[in-house]
Amino acid sequence: MSPVEFKRIPVREQSPQERVKNFQEVALGYNEEEAVAEAKRCLQCKNPPCRSGCPVNIDIPKFIKHIAEREFMEAIRELKRWNNLPAICGRVCPQERQCEQPCVMGKRGDPINIGKLERFAADWELEHGVEIPSLPEPVGKKVAVVGAGPAGLTVAGNLARAGIQVTLFEALHKEGGVLVYGIPEFRLPKKIVAAEADYVKRLGVEVKLDVLVGRTITIDDLFGEGYEAVFLGTGAGLPLLLNIPGENLNGVFSANEYLIRSNLMKAYLFPEFDTPTKRGKKVAVIGAGDVSMDCARTALRLGAEKSMIIYRRSFEEMPARREEYHHAAEEGVEFHWLTAPVRILEDSGNVAGLECVRMQLGEPDASGRRKPIPIDGSNFEIEADIVVIAIGTTPNPLVTMTTPGLKMSPHGTLVVDKKTGKTTRPGVFAGGDVISGGATVISAMGEGKIAVENILKYLEAKW
Amino acid sequence: MFRILRKEELAPSIKLIDVHAPMVARKARPGQFVVVRVREEGERIPLTIADWKPNSGIVTIVFQEVGVTSLKLGELEEGDQLQDLLGPLGQPTHIDKFGTVVCVPGGVGIAPLFPIARALQEQGNMVITCMGARSQNLLFWVDRMRSVSDEVLISTDDGSFGFHGFTTDLLKQVISRGTKINMVFTAGPAIMMKKVAEVTALAGIPTIASLNAMMVDGTGMCGVCRVMVDGKTRFTCVDGPDFDAHKVDFDHLLSRLAVYKAEEKAALDLYLKRRGVK
Lengths: 463, 278
Ligand SMILES: Cc1cc2nc3c(=O)[nH]c(=O)nc-3n(C[C@H](O)[C@H](O)[C@H](O)COP(=O)(O)OP(=O)(O)OC[C@H]3O[C@@H](n4cnc5c(N)ncnc54)[C@H](O)[C@@H]3O)c2cc1C
Ligand SMILES: Cc1cc2nc3c(=O)[nH]c(=O)nc-3n(C[C@H](O)[C@H](O)[C@H](O)COP(=O)(O)OP(=O)(O)OC[C@H]3O[C@@H](n4cnc5c(N)ncnc54)[C@H](O)[C@@H]3O)c2cc1C
Ligand code: SF4
Ligand code: FES
Fold this sequence. Notes:
heterodimer, A: 463 residues, alpha/beta, 5-stranded parallel β-sheet, 34% helix, globular, B: 278 residues, 5-stranded antiparallel β-sheet, binds flavin-adenine dinucleotide, binds iron/sulfur cluster, binds FE2/S2 (inorganic) cluster
């Protein structure tokens, strides 16, 4: 047996100086040799702890073993038994908190780079031609899926693989949800999202874009048209604002608007694409989650001289993935910790800057993190011409408002039984950000898989 | 994709298209709108549902060519396909038996006010329409408005037809008659709606304005359409487009509509240059 290799095979990346000038992908991924070498580091544990860290329970050592033995097609087949969207998950999952965190190798050296191996296998298949598994005989049942984000795509794909006739309704003009409108091209190329959505369509799912359920058609209409169950994967798309003076000035964006213009509408290619955006010189992003990092890094690529993250707590409490923080810092994003905006400053209708106050940390609050407390009289100003508010989102209440029998929690999320995905209305299931209020791609997919099992049981009981 | 079944030029640079969109036609109500994308590289723009026929699946749109997207829309011919059309969006107009109502459309503001006036008349209201245009050749749908109003007054800015002046002057005339007006509905350029609101505030007449804020998604996701109503932030696409005109901060709306002026102009110049070359 070869000696244990403690160091990871490094992942090639575009250099920070180069990549801030373009929207191309930052991490370049493994080639065959690198992937095989990394896969060979895996110890093939008998009771693999990595697997229990995976929200969709992928048989991780098994797919890695196929890579180590250069059976790339087998590797992707294994992955797709558990996960319909591996090229996406390999790129955006927080593996350091999931499968890689408990990896045995991590105790003595670097954990196996499971995410980049997943990405490698998925990209290999996209390059060599995607295999469509053979589908069972149709069982003669129709199910409607609402929302084409990761939750909806997973549910639609898995139901189709169980012989169910699926129609997927999406309000926007493209499939992918946050994957296509929120996460930037430089982290998740849109052609990858399109390819994985295409895979779901090739499993027999009929996609109807430009349909806003609740307006174009209601849940009651869907049942009336013969759909026997409905899955809601409508996400959490409603932006939260700060409610501070100056919020409606020109130059103040919600993170959603800033990212939708750039990602979904490709405003960085204006005027070849028709949607414009503002290319600020000094951009201040409020909040320090993954969304904030995406906004701050987008600002640099749109030509900002200065891109700042303004956060009321400190580095320790920052919710963003460390990898994303690291990438942002490398690219030159400035971090203003323990700083809270109190007012957006105006210059004849436009943003001129932020008035901020310094904070200190007190006792832990309900979230378990130390509560930020303003320091009296510490107000100061930060110059900016664009302010992006990235402090979170909540579910859009449209579907709940237009569907009798659905219950909403005080936080605006849909009330479901977490073990089955059942909402308070018979035949209606839900999963993803609409029930969590905002989590991860893979948790949305995990909740989708739970719902699929229970939709199938529900349909069977009605058979 | 959504096929254009019929196209009509109503006035110079004002066009009508009938689009095949059965799901939208089935659900449309007065005051609602659609978001349209002309082509793959296109932007999403909001346009009112000016009329609809549930049985034949037709949605009628009336638009003015003011910039790149509306010009590109105007290039499409019968038989061509629109890339995207999403709707019906927004809260339908609240229609009730108010008594006597006055509708004040300006320019393509006729698009929302035609179905609103029709519904108001069907509910048994006495409907008076004060409509206007810059000049006679820009007037359209006069007959249509007559067919859904008990009385139609017309003005032109240059006096080429009807009363020489603005629609707000017509509105003042109607108010000065002394008959009780229970409600005013207005739609059109923001500056005109602001003026209408000023007139009716003085006269103490409740007024609804159909706001034309800038939009992207039209579903409540981006917040670009936010307006200030009664000091609070509201999203035009989901909370509106109808709001109490006396509580709308029109100056704020006007300033937000001008945010992309420079970009719009640059895009227009490029478009006209390329079209010229063709
Ligand atoms: C900028 C950003 C970066 C992120 N980065 C990461 C990351 O790196 N890793 C990670 O794991 N997670 C990340 N997340 C979180 C992750 O993207 C979400 O948790 C995940 O997308 C949720 O999936 P979903 O299917 O529940 O909803 P969404 O992805 O939000 O999809 C919902 C879809 O439903 C549609 N819809 C809504 N209402 C209706 C309706 N009434 N009718 C029809 N369609 C409707 C929407 O248009 C949308 O397409 C990020 C989120 C954002 C915003
Ligand atoms: C709910 C709603 C319903 C609407 N219904 C109609 C309709 O039925 N028919 C119609 O012709 N238009 C309607 N509009 C306005 C229409 O959306 C704009 O005219 C369109 O977006 C212009 O796009 P463009 O690319 O052609 O012009 P741009 O290049 O975006 O703009 C060109 C010029 O038009 C002005 N402009 C841009 N957007 C608007 C706007 N929203 N309102 C007023 N002026 C604007 C700009 O300030 C600029 O001077 C509606 C708007 C809303 C919000
Ligand atoms: S825990 Fe690490 S070493 Fe063990 S099987 Fe999983 S990836 Fe391989
Ligand atoms: S248009 Fe995006 S929220 Fe209204």
